[in-house]
Design a protein that fits this description.
The structure holds 2 protein chains of 2 kinds. In chain A, 17% of the residues lie in helices and 42% in strands. Chain A has 7 helices and 23 strands. In chain A, β3 and β4 form a beta hairpin. The longest helix of chain A has 19 residues. In chain B, a hairpin with a 7-residue loop joins β5 and β6. By secondary structure, chain B is of the alpha+beta class. The chains are: A alpha+beta, B alpha+beta. Chain A: It is found in: Endomembrane system. Chain A: Keywords: Membrane, Protein transport, Transport.
């Protein structure tokens, strides 16, 4: 089981350590890790999640500039280690409203308290955010002010949340909400690979159903889809009952309070993509002319927002200059180019042209950059998944029900 | 661009972050020690305490050692403020291992908290207490644990389950059985959360005690979906292991499919790879799936040596005969149930759960149903980056064993630009494994794009993967070769410079891939070879050139076109020899030699000319290696028989035939590839850490042997479980005990090599009560013993003159109860009736057991002599000590203080060799487990020693009759009662001896009583209340033999009752159960452990 958790900044500083077991893991393991990371090229986001050091097995995840490092000396499911670290990162980021070195340092006591509740003897204890919120209250502006005015105020709850006892640990029984409403959000990410000739290699949608429930008491919800058959893969929040899904493709559940991810799904083998990106590279004697055209392919019916095209220039390109007829182009230090377009104007198709100067000796470009497109479409679920109805039982009054949808680009890649 | 703006932005963001930092603990982290922490800790305000603790925590976070505040922090554990309490617990747990003695101070507080009404406080206390890794805490924590395991709050029970493995980490064998019992209790818990945690504890405490699962298998399966996600992982692992151990492998599963029956022939070939007569092609065509499956079977299951070390034939026979017994069908109810209850887990949000469930299906499910796991694990690939890598590593294995499973899902393995290099390579490997006729066009198209990847390392791997695909699917060879040739052409046009190092790799790999492909059918790919040869002119990279030249030599006699162009090629090679790099020169030498050797007809002369031209050049080459090789080839070629024939020398030496053979083998033999590498593949269970790091991590256990848990054993275990567990743990306990209580074990090593028994006994007799003795092993040295303290024994010999009043009274009461042997005889006629623990005051009441008293017990009571200083360490001085039950006269003056105190004692002036001196030392121990450090000064030297307290002498014997005893016992039931079992074997020798003497007077059972009583009395300061003896017809069997002892704790005069019950056969070791009733939980438990320890240890006599 996990022996120790370290939180390390992206400059290699150990922000805090939490020993989980009697036999302590020495902090020097962090130095080893850091040297290893540097030896691997220093790209922290590309490090292996499971590393065997001479003394320990390390699990690490990298989130927003912070490394969460856990170590163990015995066999344990590696996914359990990394998944738990993800959970820790999620919850800390949720508590602190983000993740960065300063936030963690400023709230180190809360982080310690959280870690202590989340893991016992290296084994996950409570990872349910709702229960944790009851045990340790998150910092908010009121408590901060209070602590400034009155000196100190404790954020550690003196009572054990009831939910730890129930068989639905995600919900406490006696919730009273002033609002009586439930929102269902479809958030979809479209992954696509487009070849340089414009052919679609693959296109699929990864979607999440996020629910924001503000219901009192012990409500029982049933969500049904108009076209559940299009769902290729599914993963469920523990609150979903398996039987109704197996038999009727219904989501029947008692929701946690507040925001949570009800399920995630995947819809594969889609045929249409909302925008096209056409890169063109023409090499001639030591330089290369690059043009990129962007436009709407299949109009989703709603405006496509914040379109950005990003790509890495190959290392054999020594210099480049770009001009665009719409939006702005930035070339960052690591040869990463970013062209932010925003919305596609009605009157013209945005285009980017540039001249790449190649390393001497190269007559033409033999490697091709991959362009990544980012965009956002409000109000549409591109997978076509439709929510049929949401029934709420166990409630004295029918709550207000809201539905929303959003599609954004996930791994939307265009090869050139 | 705008540095000034950047600076402004920076300061702005700083300012804004300052605003956000108000009210947080930021200042504590930044300057944790800008105020003095110590006074804050002693403050009477909770807020100040909390601040101090937060500062300490900040220092801990920054890696400072602040353990010196431990005593002050521990003091605060009694606070009512939950925040301070939490912070104190955080601090204590961080340093508990470092400062064990101070951590002990907090125990009382934990114990108080354990009975708090608030479950959260109870859980915290339990977690903190079990987190202190201290052997002395073990028993106390165990009591707390057993209490918490029955707590009404499931949260507390869950914490108890987690605490189990903490205690297990202490490796206290005496607790092992109780831990297992607790695991069993918690596994039976009705709350799913607790079951999950208990499953994790099971894995760390008794992973092999699968019979524990057998009873509740069905119920556990049904709980699986309700258990929390982390618990599910541990639980289904146990269930899988149980099913394998109980029922064996599933016949329809992939594990079983590798079993001999139908494909034994193919396997035989695979495993005898280095066999000389086997061509390389044959081996390569073999589907590698079978090897993988075979390997899986071998590696997944325990005892791999059984599978791997044996000869293949033997193995086949073996498995063939055992086939039926190892297997079960998919129709088996348990298998079905487990598969059913783990299926929904494949939809879990937690990737670890998905993979664990997939692992269960992988091992158990039939090959038809395997499809179920594919989509869920592929979907996990869309979750976090970290899990992606681990899942891919597992899919890689799955795919190798069963490529068809994934072939329809090739799209999921298409590389995306955000993948790290390792993931790209993994995906590539999977793609080339699962490539099928239907998907290969798409995959190859993808590969074409990958070759343009900016990461050239990856491009190299892609080119290599193409060759792999062709190996699996020979039909695409043509397309692939065309592609590869195009790559060669393109790459050879690029001039390589510093930053383009990777490019050379692509080119070389492309040629290597071509080489691998044409090797399979050279005649068919003649044109490709010609193509390569023609590109020689453009290719500058020496390794690439060397490769092509090698190909020329290898396939110089293939086909028609090559034959025609060979002369040109050879001349070309001759021309460019001098300008080549080392590598290529080597290959030119080899190739031309090969061609010369194999060539026939008119070209032969040309080849020879070129060869000798090259050889001439080689002789003057700068590189000695080339020169050597040139000379060697010259020698070989010129001594060739054919050549000598031409030169007119007709006799053919017998050697030359051999030489010819040698030459043919050296230059013309076709290469044989070795594909043995796959056998060195290591496989571990899917989802395990070992599978990722590719070595068995500590604690890794493969699946148990199939059917190693037979049904009969299971049922037996159900009834006898507790007893067996207790027994087995006791036996191991004895072993460890001797080292733990060192002092006892070392008694039989007297100075002067006398017979140990008689030596110590006579010593004791001689010296009356003087337990402290110094003896000098080296005759001419005088020793001065000094400063040993005693709280001595005196329950021994009848000659005890100085025995205390208590002791006198105790023996007096013994005498009052004393009955003669004849009295016992009279009881024998009484008809049996029940209870042995009877509240009745009347000793003459009818009962099945006789109450006897043992006279002359004092004679057999020997003082327990512990060694303080060994002669070996003490320069010949031996110091022993024992405790008396005498009460110190000054004892009342010393009220409990933090430090153990010693009453000064006078020096022993001198001690002659062989002499002994005794004196009494009075000590106030602070704790009944902590040793006291002393120093003995003699001969001007200081000898540090440790005085181990004996908890047996922390009591004083109190006289009471049975009536009072039972009354008191009834008051001290429930949580004040602790019992343990052990075995007692001391009597065996005596019983045997008695047999020899055929003494009719002594009853065997009486002897046993005496023996037990003597042992008890000589190890603890207690009073024998009564002995109940069973009346049975069989004289060599003991049951319900019951001895009662009473005492009170010295420090607080609380009564402490001990009951010893014995059962078993006289001639064998007896089962003893010891029960202690005492209000002081910790003390009672430690006393119990002590009694069990000395009862089960083999006595000196």
């Amino acid at each position: 089981m996990l022996q120790c958790i370290f939180i390390i900044s992206n400059s290699g500083e150990v922000i805090l350590e939490k020993q989980l077991q009697g036999h302590r893991a020495d902090r020097s393991i962090c130095n080893w890790f850091w040297e290893y990371a540097m030896a691997q090229g220093g790209e922290l986001s590309q490090l292996l999640p499971v590393i065997a050091s001479p003394t320990h097995y390390l699990f690490q995840i990298f989130r927003e500039g912070i490394i969460f490092l856990a170590c163990t000396q015995v066999e344990m499911p590696p996914l359990m280690g990394t998944e738990f670290l993800c959970r820790v990162a999620d919850i800390i980021s949720d508590y602190l409203g983000g993740l960065n070195e300063d936030l963690i340092k400023d709230n180190f006591v809360i982080v310690y308290e959280l870690l202590d509740e989340m893991v016992d003897n290296g084994y996950p204890l409570i990872t349910e955010p709702n229960i944790l919120r009851e045990m340790i209250s998150p910092p908010n502006i009121v408590s901060k002010m209070l602590s400034v005015v009155t000196g100190r105020s404790s954020n550690v709850s003196t009572t054990l949340p009831v939910a730890t006892q129930s068989c639905a640990p995600w919900r406490k029984t006696d919730i009273k909400n002033s609002g009586n409403e439930v929102y269902v959000n479809l958030v979809e990410e479209i992954d696509a690979i487009v070849r340089s000739d414009g052919n679609l290699v693959k296109c699929e949608i990864y979607g999440e159903i996020q629910v924001d429930s503000n219901l009192s008491g012990y409500p029982d919800l049933t969500l049904s889809f108009a076209n559940p058959t299009i769902l290729n893969d599914v993963r469920f929040h523990p609150c979903i009952r398996f039987r109704p899904w197996e038999l009727y493709q219904l989501l029947s559940f008692v929701p946690p309070n507040g925001q949570f991810k009800l399920m995630s799904y995947r819809v594969k083998k889609l045929k249409s993509i909302p925008i096209y990106v056409k890169p063109q590279l023409i090499s001639s004697s030591g330089s290369c002319r690059m043009t990129v055209l962007v436009g709407t392919r299949n109009d989703p019916g709603k405006p496509i927002d914040s379109i950005t095209i990003e790509f890495h220039l190959p290392s054999c390109v020594t210099s480049a200059d770009f001009t665009s007829n719409h939006g702005t182009v930035n070339i960052l230090a690591d040869k990463r180019c970013s062209w932010s377009i925003g919305r596609i104007p009605k009157d013209k198709a945005p285009s980017l042209t540039g001249n790449l100067v190649l390393e001497s000796g190269l007559s033409s470009l033999h490697v091709c950059p991959v362009l990544q497109a980012k965009f956002k479409i409000m109000g549409v679920a591109l997978s076509g998944l439709q929510i049929d109805r949401l029934d709420v039982k166990n409630m004295p009054t029918q709550p207000y029900k809201g539905f929303r949808a959003l599609t954004r680009a996930g791994e939307y890649e265009v090869r050139s | 661009m705008f540095p000034q703006f950047g600076a402004t932005a920076e300061s702005l963001s700083k300012a804004s972050s300052l605003v956000f930092r108000i009210g947080t603990d930021a200042h504590l982290y930044d300057d944790p020690d800008d105020v003095s922490i110590a006074p804050l800790l002693d403050s009477s305000f909770d807020s100040e305490k909390a601040e101090a603790l937060k500062r300490l925590l900040a220092l801990i976070a920054q890696g400072e050692d602040v353990s010196n505040f431990f005593p002050q922090v521990v003091k605060n554990v009694a606070t009512p403020s939950s925040e301070v309490k939490k912070l104190v617990y955080l601090y204590i747990l961080h340093y508990a291992e470092k400062r064990p003695n101070e951590a002990l101070l907090s125990i009382n507080c934990f114990q108080k908290d354990l009975s708090d009404a608030n479950p959260l406080v109870r859980a915290w206390a339990l977690r903190a207490m079990s987190g202190i890794r201290l052997h002395a805490i073990g028993p106390i924590a165990l009591v707390a644990l057993s209490k918490c395991a029955k707590d009404p709050s499931s949260y507390v029970r869950k914490c108890a389950a987690n605490a189990l493995s903490k205690l297990n980490d202490l490796h206290q064998e005496e607790n092992a059985s109780s831990l297992e019992e607790l695991v069993s209790i918690l596994l039976n818990d009705h709350s799913p959360g607790v079951v999950g945690a208990a499953a994790a504890a099971f894995n760390s405490i008794c992973p092999n005690n699968l019979s524990l699962v057998g009873r509740i298998f069905r119920r556990l399966c049904e709980t699986v979906p309700d258990v929390d996600e982390w618990g599910q992982i541990a639980l289904i692992n146990i269930l899988l292991r149980y099913v394998i151990a109980r029922h064996g492998l599933v016949e329809e599963s992939i594990m079983a499919s590798s079993h001999p029956s139908e494909n034994s022939d193919s396997r035989r070939e695979l495993f005898s790879i280095p066999a000389p007569d086997r061509g390389s092609i044959l081996v390569e065509v073999e589907p590698s799936e079978h090897i993988m499956r075979e390997l899986m079977l071998r590696h997944y299951i325990e005892g791999p040596e059984q599978y791997s070390s044996r000869q293949i034939d033997a193995k086949e026979d073996d498995n063939g005969s055992n086939n039926n017994s190892y297997f079960t069908s998919i129709e088996n109810n348990d298998v079905k149930l487990l598969l059913q209850c783990t299926s929904p887990l494949l939809w879990s949000q937690n990737s670890a759960v998905v993979l664990a469930a997939a692992g269960v299906h992988w091992v158990l499910a039939s090959q038809m149903d395997m499809e179920n796991i594919v989509k869920p694990i592929l979907f996990v690939l869309r979750s976090s980056y970290a899990s992606r890598y681990v899942v891919l590593r597992n899919i890689q294995i799955f795919a190798k064993a069963m490529p068809s499973l994934f072939s329809a899902y090739h799209e999921d393995f298409f590389v995306s630009s955000s993948d790290s290099y390792q993931m790209k390579v993994l995906k590539l490997d999977i793609l080339s494994t699962i490539a099928a006729e239907s998907s290969i066009p798409f995959i190859l198209q993808e590969f074409q794009d990958y070759i343009k990847d900016p990461d050239r390392r990856f491009a190299v791997d892609v080119v290599a993967a193409i060759a792999l695909c062709v190996k699996n699917l020979p039909s695409v060879a043509k397309t692939c070769l065309e592609g590869l040739l195009a790559i060669v052409k393109q790459e050879s046009s690029i001039k390589h410079y510093g930053s383009l190092e990777g490019e050379a790799g692509v080119l070389i790999q492309a040629i290597m891939s071509i080489k691998t492909i044409i090797k399979q059918d050279p005649a068919n790919y003649e044109k490709v070879i010609v193509h390569l040869i023609r590109s020689l002119d453009n290719i500058k990279e020496p390794s690439a050139r060397a490769l092509i030249i090698w190909i020329v030599g290898e396939y110089s006699d293939v086909g028609h076109i090559i034959l025609k162009i060979i002369p040109v090629v050879v001349s070309y090679l001759g021309q460019c020899f001098s300008s080549e790099e080392l590598e290529a020169k080597h290959q030119i030498l080899n190739t031309v030699a090969k061609i010369v050797l194999s060539a026939q007809g008119e070209e032969h002369e040309l080849f020879r000319k070129v060869l000798f031209y090259i050889l001439d050049l080689a002789k003057v080459d700068l590189n000695y290696d080339i020169r050597d090789r040139g000379r060697m080839i010259e020698k070989l070629v010129t001594s060739q028989p054919k050549i000598s024939h031409q030169e007119g020398i007709l006799h053919v030496e017998p050697d030359s035939i051999l030489l010819d053979e040698l030459l043919k083998n050296m230059f013309c033999g076709k290469i044989q590839s070795v594909t043995g590498a796959i056998n060195h593949f290591r496989l571990y269970l899917p989802g395990s850490l070992s599978q990722i790091v590719l070595h068995a991590a500590p604690g890794y256990t493969p699946l148990p042997q199939p059917c190693s848990l037979p049904e009969m054993a299971l049922e037996n275990r159900m009834s006898q479980d507790g007893i067996e567990a207790a027994n087995s743990s006791d036996s191991s306990y004895e072993g460890s005990q001797s080292s733990y209580y060192d002092s006892e074990g070392s008694i039989p090593s007297p100075v002067d090599g006398e017979n140990p028994d008689s030596g110590s006994e006579s010593d004791v007799a001689d010296n009356d009560h003087y337990m402290l003795r110094g003896a000098n092993g080296s005759p001419d040295a005088t020793a001065i013993g000094q400063l040993i303290h005693l709280t001595d024994t005196s329950i021994h010999d009848g000659t005890a003159k100085q025995s205390t009043a208590e002791n006198n009274t105790s023996s007096a009461t013994d005498l009052t109860n004393l009955m003669s042997k004849s009295a016992l005889e009279s009881w024998l006629n009484e008809q049996p009736c029940l209870p042995s623990v009877n509240s009745s005051a009347d000793p003459s009441r009818e009962r099945s057991s006789a109450r006897i008293s043992i006279n002359e017990i004092e004679v057999s009571v020997k003082p327990k002599l512990n060694v303080l200083l060994e002669p070996a360490n003490g320069n010949g001085l031996r110091v022993g000590y024992s405790f008396t039950s005498e009460i110190s006269k000054i004892s009342p003056c010393y009220y409990p203080s933090k430090v153990p105190t010693i009453v000064p004692m006078e020096e022993i002036d001198s001690l002659h060799p062989g002499d002994m001196a005794r004196s009494i030392l009075q000590v106030h121990f602070h704790h009944h487990l902590l040793p006291l450090k002393l120093a003995i000064y003699y001969n001007e030297k200081r000898h540090p020693v440790k005085l181990q307290p004996d908890i047996g002498y922390f009591t004083r014997p109190i006289a009471m009759d049975l009536n009072a005893f039972t009354k008191l016992e009834n008051h001290l039931r429930g949580m004040f009662e602790y019992s343990r079992r052990c075995t007692f074997a001391d009597h065996i020798n005596i019983v045997d001896q008695e047999k020899g003497q055929s003494s009719l007077n002594d009853d065997k059972i009486l002897l046993i009583c005496r023996k037990i009583a003597a042992k008890m009395l000589s190890s603890a300061s207690i009073h024998l209340v009564s002995v109940d003896m069973p009346i049975l017809l069989k004289f060599d069997e003991v049951s319900d033999l019951c001895l009662r002892f009473s005492s009170e704790i010295l420090s607080n005069s609380k009564p402490c009752l001990i009951t010893v019950t014995a059962e078993g056969k006289c001639s064998e070791a007896l089962d003893i159960s010891v029960k202690v009733n005492c209000e002081e939980t910790v003390f009672g438990l430690n006393l119990l452990n002590r009694i069990v320890a000395f009862l089960s240890s083999n006595s000196v006599s």
